[in-house]
TrEMBL record:
SUPFAM superfamilies: Homocysteine S-methyltransferase. Zn(2+) binds at residues 252, 319-320. It comes from Brassica napus. Binds 1 zinc ion per subunit. The gene is BnaA05g16960D. GO terms for molecular function: S-adenosylmethionine-homocysteine S-methyltransferase activity; zinc ion binding. NCBIfam families: PRK09485.1. The keyword Metal-binding applies. It comes from the Eukaryota. This is BnaA05g16960D protein. Its cofactor is Zn(2+). Residues 13-334 form the Hcy-binding domain.
Amino acid sequence: MGSLVKKGTSSSLMTEFLEKCDGYAVVDGGFATELERHGADIKDPLWSAKCLITSPHLVTKVHLDYLESGSNIIITASYQATIQGFVAKGLSVGEAESLLRRSVELSCEAREIFYNRCNKGSWDFDHAGKASRRPVLVAASVGSYGAYLADGSEYSGVYGDSVSKESLKDFHRRRVQILAKSGADLIAFETIPNKLEAEAYVDLLEEEGIDIPAWFAFTSKDGVTVPSGESIIECAEVADSCKKLVAIGINCTAPRYISDLVVSLRQVTHKPIIVYPNSGEVYDGLNKKWIKSEEESEEDFVSYVSRWREEGASLFGGCCRTTPNTIKAITNVLSCESSAPTNLKFW
Ligand SMILES: C[S+](C)CC[C@H](N)C(=O)O
Ligand SMILES: N[C@@H](CCS)C(=O)O
Ligand SMILES: [Zn+2]
């Protein structure tokens, strides 16, 4: 059984979904880092995609934990799952393609288990007390070329002169084709570090006739630019021009920068805005370790959510080093706000 969201045009998918969710939706939290918290060793060029081979049961568990925490969107384990990366590990192209499909199947299976539990958490009640299931979408993750490089290059955005828009398109083409036909509801292009890669994705979506919608989530280290130094505004303009995108936003970025970024995005797009920041810690790509930040705590993060909503965001979640607890807290903030009388705003 698929999601409860009726398949319509790309643009209607998100509108109808957000309507069903009362105007805002909860995205899941850090996926790879949650696998790691449960003991997975992902210090590997495949990072979280290694678990598609070694521990698919853990992939399902983490999806279920996020569903139980209130997520309306779960993102697949395919962030660093590339055909090129799997082949470098000795797998055949066919096996690599199967693992990509498997990442989506695991998310769909988790959604199915969650629905079948029919527990309180999977049902919402309308004002008349009638039960309806919480809508859940499966978003197929596509990490950047920098993610495949496996050295934290998604936080530098510098790919060198040998990488062109055409080479990026060739790098991503087959994976995007497979994920588009995998049963996912949409594609999540995540942690985009430069304008060139955004342009390559737009071309691919259009030239390959990708028939499921997508979102773009950029990363930033200063609240103004993406890691390559290009402004978030010019990157968002590229995204806004693409009819197949049903949301534009920011992920894996310190929470303290999100507010300014949302305000900038709102200047150039009417599309729904998605934000799923990381914990504020800094990634050491060479040693694959997170370095604590003095400046932020999980509590601060959640206290920002109402403001991001006022500034125009409508999809909220977490990225690296956030956990199901973060998502529970976001769910609580948003549901309290929705049920509060409008004259009792928090800000
Ligand atoms: C978003 S970063 C933390 C992902 C991991 C990185 N591509 C690596 O392989 O180290
Ligand atoms: N969806 C990915 C993004 C990494 S930046 C994850 O949460 O692991
Ligand atoms: Zn992240």
